[in-house]
Model the fold of this input.
Amino acid sequence: MTEMATADTLYTLHHCPDCAALNAALCAAFLSCPEHAVLRRSHYFNGRYENIYIAADALPGLSAVLTQARNFAGDILGIASSRLRLGFWFNAMHPGAVTLAHAHDDDDELLSAAYYLQVPARSGDLLIHEGAQCARISPQPGLFVFFAPQRLHEVTRNDSDQLRLSLGINFGLADAAG
Done:
């Protein structure tokens, strides 16, 4: 099932069909990922790295999620998905963690997204800000949330006793890459 937002909303939602087994496999692969597959960590705040970069080929099944994301992004942007490049990272939020307000407009991004792999109850909502507007999205496994990279967004506190795992993705034009 796919939900498309209108142009005046802050985000667009898409759902990964039949993603439960894929998400379970990706979560297990992430948790057992060898340290040498971690390319880097960044954005150290409140005692954790918010971004964990792992080689795509280290996690079986990740390419299927990234392909879906690229196709959805192409539809949203009105650009052939083959013309889009993407960068991605994992956000592992342990109990008590938050993700601070930030934007993804550092480079030439056209669109940003979050994809949810594991979302325990009470593990935090995504807040997307635009001026005085604030959208609150309660994530669920298999949900893609697409939004403009310049929009401030954050994740509320993980009040569960389990790990919440999501994937952050930025899209730009492939021919704009340096």
User: Anything to note?
Assistant: Confidence is low (pLDDT under 50) at residues 1-7. The longest strand covers residues 84-93. The first helix runs from residue 20 to 31. The CA atoms of residues 123 and 158 lie 4 Å apart.
